[in-house]
Amino acid sequence: METPVLELRGIVREYKSGPTVLKVLDGTDLTLNRGELVGLVGPSGSGKSTLLHTAGLLERAEGGEVLLDGEEVLKLSDSVRTRLRREKLGFVYQFHHLLPEFNALDNVAMPLMVNGVKRKAAREKARSMLAEMGLAERATHQPGQLSGGEQQRVAISRALANDPKLVIADEPTGNLDPATTDRVFASLIKIARSEGAAVLVATHNMALTRHMDRVLTLQDGKLTTFTG
After folding, report:
1. Which residue ranges form the domains of the chain, and what is each CATH number?
2. Are 168 and 92 in contact (CB under 8 A)?
3. Where are the alpha helices (DSSP H) in the chain?
């Protein structure tokens, strides 16, 4: 059996405020396989971002295990976790966070060059990614010259440039109109499927969940299958 891309086993996340302890994740379990698209829904404040940050090695859990490609990573040093994020993970947020001083091509090429890819090869890969997103003719435009949907498709290209094993998306279309949302999400699905990445998407947009392999609800610190 193929090793899951991501496993969360019995994850506990707590926040303390004086004598009060708020348990946001309470023994949470999750498995994501290669090429799988999984939705994460739940009310505001239910802990969806906390779960994403834990899965993405941005926060440390107080208990449980996080396995990435079968390797337990919860207790690794910060420097090793940073390297794993750079090499194996891609992140897409509600706001694109593109670098305004660089054009679309160089925004996508940047993480490749940070990982040691030569500039020419990085820009060739970036050009190919943008073409897959339908942005070949926008490659030399600055972020400020692109529409919101175009900016988000550049951000998705950047997140996938390093061929990550796992893509984590936190409300990736939350700032877009419905028509643009459909196009951006279709682009994310297309490129994630073609690259074989596992994708975990937190969203309030229930219309998007019909495109996903599974949808999970986070409530009271536990994940359950969403039943509509």
Report:
1. 32-58+77-225 (3.40.50.300)
2. yes
3. 48-55, 78-88, 104-114, 119-132, 148-160, 178-195
Question: Looking at this protein, which amino acid is placed at residue 176?
Answer: L
Tokens of 87: 């090499």
Question: In this predicted model, what pLDDT tens digit does every residue of 132-186 receive, in sequence order?
Answer: 888 899 999 999 999 888 888 898 889 888 888 899 988 887 777 787 788 778 8
Q: Is 119 left (phi over 0), alpha (psi -120 to 50) or beta?
A: alpha
pTM comes to: 0.86
Could you read off the pLDDT of 73-86 as tens digits, one per residue? 988 899 999 889 88
- Which token pair is 186? 């279709």
Cα separation, 58 vs 79, whole angstroms: 12
DSSP 8-state code for residue 3: P
Pairing of the two strands 89-92 and 166-170: parallel
